Amino acid sequence: MTRHYLRLSGYALLAATCLSSHAVVSFTTSSVPALGRRTNSMGGIGMVQLNGASDSELQQKQEQEEESTNEDLWWKNYKMEHAKVAEQSRPDFEILSTTLEQVDNKPLVYLDSAATSQKPKQVIEALDHYYTKLNSNVHRGAHTLSREATAAYEGARDKVQKLIHANSRNEIIFTSGATESINLVVYSYARANLKAGDEILLTEMEHHSNIVPWQMLAETIPGLKLKFVKMDRETGAVDLKEFKSMLNSNTKMVAFQHVSNVAGCVNPVTEMVQMVRAQADAKILLDACQSVPHMPVDVQTLGVDFLAASGHKMCGPTGIGFLWGREDLLNSMPPFQGGGEMIDQVTLEGSTYVPAPGRFEAGTPAIAQAIGLGAAIDYLQQLGMEEIEAYEHEMAEYLVRRMEQVDRVTVLGPKSGTPRAALCAFIVDGVHPSDLSSFLDMEGVAVRAGHHCCQPLHQSLGYSHSARASLYLYNTKEDVDTFIEKLESTIAFLTGLEGEGGQADDDFVPFI
Ligand SMILES: Cc1ncc(COP(=O)(O)O)c(C=O)c1O
């Protein structure tokens, strides 16, 4: 059953108003900490309980309290061995050192990188360089600018190939993002190869972009079946036993996330691939949107057939992403869209197509964005994907452990102590995620609220929405500390208002 929150609609309305009104922000932001500051109740409660106790009992109790207070303060001494990743990179992200005029000049604490990452100056300069020095269409002209633009655009393809260890540059198709990459597989490969009686295996954790296109396909092929593997409630990752049990000779397509954008779990891809290969003759699509930006990814080792990712989540521009596929497989697939660039010969009777990648890149591509993605890959590689992964691992543990200690908070996905991504979706008992994110926003802290394009997972966990804090290579321990401090004061403030805010309105979700 879906759990309902008491939504403080009056206050949320105030918060929403604040987003567009500086005058109201000034008033409200100064009120929140004053009203909401969380007090450490340890001393007061202890004294009441100790009335009438003997001296030794009193001392014992005090020692216990000190011990537990020190344990609670473990985070003050938490050391990050790879913190130089953020120290080195942060100055490259000008936006992170700006203060938000709209919210009383509070410094920005950006914790929404799973939605989109910030861009370093190197990427912004690459875009600027293209438009000021190279702007021209690609593959079309013999003139200097066109040749140089083509070289830069194709150079970006080489960089993607190296990043994910693809066999050939021809295996990299530029798309507008992971969503288009998945749709390409659905409308080209699956539409041509799947038929009634076949099964597609997905998980309930998938982003809508890896559910809806398959549902749309199933509507056009009666008898095509979609099956969904559940999340293991213990591990917070995909349920491997169920995954194995749902594979059979009818399974023709398996598509799942590498890293969940809600649970933050890292699915054991190679193990899952082995299960598929042993039990089915199916193609495997990996949604690597939340892994490629954060860790080394090697398509040879993973053993999948297709991989989809978005540039804007890995320091690159919006409007660019890629699909990787095995070259022979790509060349066996019909084009996704028709138009210029993807053809070999066109007559009025019919057309023939060039091999991959050209056959899947109809029309003028996103040239500047591809070049920007290339610059982003250079940037990530110069920091080192292993280093980024190691740092985010430390940050993930820190974030989740701290979240687990906040009253009323339930963290979704794996518990602390388990390797996971540096993102944390959570529920606050009695507080609507949208209220929470609106009030945190007034403190300069940007977190996301909603279903994060994962309604089925939320429904399955018994929630309609959650809030989510997601980190990237530029976030620091101090960012997490500020977030936790503001989270605690906001929860205290909002729960102090419980019952005063009006009607429960669980359906109202201003942000998704
Ligand atoms: C796991 C996952 N898959 C797919 C997508 C879709 O990516 P895009 O919107 O860039 O196409 C996202 C975006 O949030 C995601 O997190």
UniProtKB/TrEMBL annotation:
Residues 1-23 form the signal peptide. Transmembrane segments: none annotated. It comes from the Eukaryota. Its EC number is 2.8.1.7. This is cysteine desulfurase. It catalyses: (sulfur carrier)-H + L-cysteine = (sulfur carrier)-SH + L-alanine. Pfam families: Aminotran_5. Keywords: Pyridoxal phosphate, Signal, Transferase. Belongs to the class-V pyridoxal-phosphate-dependent aminotransferase family. Csd subfamily. InterPro entries: Aminotrans_V_dom (IPR000192), Aminotrans_V_PyrdxlP_BS (IPR020578), Cys_dSase_SufS (IPR010970), PyrdxlP-dep_Trfase (IPR015424), PyrdxlP-dep_Trfase_major (IPR015421), PyrdxlP-dep_Trfase_small (IPR015422). The lineage of its organism: Eukaryota, Sar, Stramenopiles, Ochrophyta, Bacillariophyta.
